[in-house]
Design goal:
By secondary structure, this protein is mainly beta. It has no helices and eleven strands. 0% of the residues lie in helices and 50% in strands.
Length: 123
């Protein structure tokens, strides 16, 4: 079983930047990919980005391409999401999640979830 803990959220003005971290512990070899998701009140949870543990294959949702960058440091068992040019529409709780087997942007493909970190983009 894995445990995931997000950090790095906060309040930022439009155009600003934040870097989120996802610390993974437990059976750290027991996953294939880490994904970042976000959910705003009353809205569906949506995939933001994802990365494989070993190969660093990455993918991004269209609404963050060119603004967000996902990376990982396997030695630290940590995955990062660098968020630049933040917009009010990016306001949400951001979650990291681990998939044992799948390369997918769907939340249903992920087996372990963190508690989330709040990102608020407001002037």
């Amino acid at each position: 079983q894995l445990q995931l803990v997000e950090s790095g959220g906060g309040l930022v003005q439009p155009g600003g930047s934040l870097r989120l971290s996802c610390a993974v512990s437990g059976s750290t070899s027991d996953f294939y990919a880490i994904g970042w998701f976000r959910q705003a009140p009353g809205k569906e949870r949506e995939g933001v980005s994802r990365i494989t543990k070993s190969s660093s294959l990455t993918d991004y949702a269209d609404f963050v391409k060119g603004r967000f960058t996902i990376s990982r440091d396997n030695a630290k068992n940590t995955v990062y999401l660098q968020m630049n040019k933040l917009e009010p529409e990016d306001t949400a709780i951001y979650y990291c999640a681990a998939s044992r087997l799948f390369w997918s942007g769907a939340a249903s493909a992920y087996d372990y979830w963190g508690q989330g970190t709040q990102v608020t983009v407001s002037s």
